[in-house]
Design a protein that fits this description.
The chain is about 45% helix and about 15% strand. Helix 19 links the parallel strand 16 and strand 17. It starts with a helix and ends with a helix.
Length: about 625
């Protein structure tokens, strides 16, 4: 892998590398990245991998090559501005809805915010990074009281605390470094959204690349609600009240019009925008533009008022940009209305129909990109992933993937470096073919009985991966009732790190949960010897973006189900099954309770995406194997 990565970097050719758990793929790209003669960016999807690179792999690598003369081994971590504490907000206060600077927070979160402020000052004195990940435990709402986004930031030249700014110091360190570690979202914002965040670089290595399309989509998704507009208008009053007319009041009126239009709109994907909603979005866009024009020019002076002005203008700018995008009704975007939840009213969302175009135009044509992950070969080859990234063209025009007649198609190579694990000897794939097909009403009694029988045979040591929170909780209740001598944990009982800790410490434990467990849990050894998957993880039929992408694929002559739904399911299945074997000594069974994996035509594609486990549909054989595993582990 290291040889291929080094060659791709020197030749400027894109490379896709599938490297399973245990191959040491991080060193497979870090070594050639450190030896490369130009700056390299490494982008990860998860915080855990970022920590592994910075706290373990890079220090070891630097130590290993310290005898090489002239080699630049400098590296830095770079995150979005809102991931760093803001000293101006902490020391000068937080503007409230009237633009007034409030020195001390009030209410139930006051104590936590004061703790975060004290921590940030300690970080300054100790020369720390001020990163959110190092802060005392807190909520998103509490963190917003001590941080700002890029629109709210005064800028280093105007801020009285610019010389000490954590975000600016991180960027300065990145400017001096040969290797920069960041995340997919920041990479997408920098390369695709044209917001300069990362110093110029030659090559980017994208680890956990199976996540990239989703992260790029997420970074390019915008939201708008009537309450956002009202809040922005209230913030703008102080700065626009001397203007002719009442621009902030007009914007607040427009928010009311949008609220009425949203009330008259059914939740879900909006293929045909009603006249009422279209008019309301145009009204909001124009009112926000007028409000922006009413802001007075900056005098150039410094002071506390600048923070309120910057934040207010940033909020209006965000409303304008989002309303303008939604009002445009571009065929390249998908618009939908989310459902109202509890105290939170319904909001409009807009996301790109496809991301291969921006990926190719803004990133792949300018930089050399190394994509790597344990799951890049879906259905047995790289085609599905390569087409979603704009590398491998398709024959169809108008597809959600790159068209075959595209003259800008880019050269690339795929490499599967294999795995150190003998899946055929270490693991069994059990498909419960005898069970009924999953229904819309969640887990049936047959599935619950099967789960209890499998767990009982192994006496715990089970990770349950479910398609919904309700299914996970239903299964947990059934196991608790039938097997009270075991400890059964469900996602939501505690924070994920605490649940994982309990799962590892007590072998007679089951842990049941949803998506964050499918991809984010690493528990090698006897802790996890049975992974139960309740159903093939197809996207929900009413998922606005997935359904729009499938419809677009069908309209262009393709198969939307296979290109979107089956590919999504294959990726998640591979990730979920990957929770089982984490070392060369692990043994266990992946049990899929959905007979369609064995009986449906698309089952072959899904199974080809999984590790090459020994496969069976015999429930008696599997129960015997589980009992032997349990006895050996005990």
């Amino acid at each position: 892998m290291a040889d291929e990565v080094a060659e791709a970097m020197s030749e400027g050719r894109h490379l896709l590398v599938q490297a399973g758990t245990g191959t040491g793929k991080s060193l497979g790209y870090l070594v050639p990245a450190m030896l490369h003669d130009k700056r390299v960016v490494v982008a990860t999807a998860t915080l855990a991998l970022q920590h592994q690179l910075v706290e373990r792999d890079l220090p070891r690598l630097v130590e290993a090559v310290k005898g090489v003369k002239g080699l630049d081994t400098s590296y830095a971590v770079l995150k979005g501005r809102s991931n760093y504490a803001c000293l101006h907000r902490i020391r000068a206060g937080v503007p409230d809805d009237q633009g007034t600077l409030v020195d001390v927070p009030t209410g139930s979160m006051a104590e936590k915010v004061l703790e975060l402020r004290a921590w940030a000052e300690e970080e300054t004195e100790a020369g720390g990074t001020g990163e959110r990940d190092n802060a005392p435990r807190h909520t998103d709402r509490e963190w917003r009281q001590v941080a700002v986004n890029h629109r709210e930031c005064l800028g280093a030249s105007k801020c009285p605390f610019g010389a000490e700014c954590f975000a600016e110091l991180a960027r300065e360190k990145a400017q001096r470094s040969h290797l920069i570690v960041t995340n997919h979202s920041l990479l997408a914002i920098d390369a695709i959204e044209d917001v300069p965040m990362i110093p110029d670089y030659d090559t980017v290595v994208i680890d956990e690349a199976h996540e990239l399309t989703a992260r790029v989509t997420q970074a390019a998704t915008d939201e708008l609600g009537a309450n956002d507009i009202e809040r922005a208008a209230r913030r703008a009053i102080r700065w626009t009240e001397s203007s002719a007319g009442d621009p902030a009041g007009d914007l607040e009126d427009a928010a009311g019009q949008l609220a009425e239009a949203i009330e008259a709109t059914t939740a879900g994907r909006i293929d045909n925008v009603s006249t009422q909603l279209a008019d309301a979005l145009v009204l909001v866009r124009d009112a926000a533009r007028a409000c922006l024009s009413a802001f007075p020019r900056e005098s150039g002076g410094e002071g506390e008022g600048d923070a309120g002005r910057t934040q207010a203008k940033g909020m209006i700018q965000e409303v304008f940009v989002n309303a303008e995008r939604m009002a445009a009704g571009s065929q390249a975007d998908v618009l939908w209305l989310g459902e109202a939840r509890d105290r939170f009213p319904a909001r409009l969302h807009v996301a790109p129909l496809q991301v291969w175009g921006p990926m190719r135009d803004k990133l792949l044509t300018d930089k050399t990109v190394i994509f790597t992950s344990a799951t890049l070969m879906l259905g047995g080859d790289f085609s599905a992933v390569a087409t979603s990234l704009g590398l491998k063209p398709t024959e169809r025009e108008g597809s959600i993937v790159a068209p075959a007649d595209d003259e800008t198609a880019l050269p690339w190579k795929g490499l599967d470096v294999g795995s150190p694990f003998d899946y055929g000897q270490q693991s069994i794939l059990y498909v419960a073919r005898h069970l009924p097909q999953p229904g819309r009403d969640g887990l049936g009694q047959a599935q619950l009985d099967e789960i209890c029988d499998l767990v009982d045979a192994l006496d715990g040591r089970t990770l349950g991966l479910f398609s919904s929170r309700r299914a996970a909780e239903t299964a947990a209740e059934a196991v608790r009732a039938k097997l009270p001598h075991l400890t059964t944990l469900a996602q939501g009982d505690a924070q994920l790190p605490e649940l994982a800790k309990q799962f590892v410490e007590d072998p007679h434990t089951c842990l049941f949960g949803t998506l964050s467990l499918w991809q984010g849990l690493d528990v090698p050894g006897n802790t996890c010897q049975l992974v139960i998957i309740d159903r093939i993880p197809f996207p929900r039929p009413d998922d606005p973006l997935m359904s729009a992408r499938a419809k677009a694929a069908d309209a262009s002559g393709g198969n939307g189900f296979m290109e979107v739904s089956a590919t999504h399911a294959a990726l998640l299945l591979a990730q979920g099954a990957g929770r089982l074997i984490r070392t060369t000594t692990d043994r266990g069974i992946v049990a899929v309770l959905d007979p369609r994996l064995e009986t449906a035509r698309y089952g072959r594609f899904l199974k080809a995406s999984l590790p090459p486990m020994w496969s069976t549909t015999d429930p008696a054989l599997v129960r015997q194997a589980l009992k032997r595993l349990g006895e050996t582990a005990s």
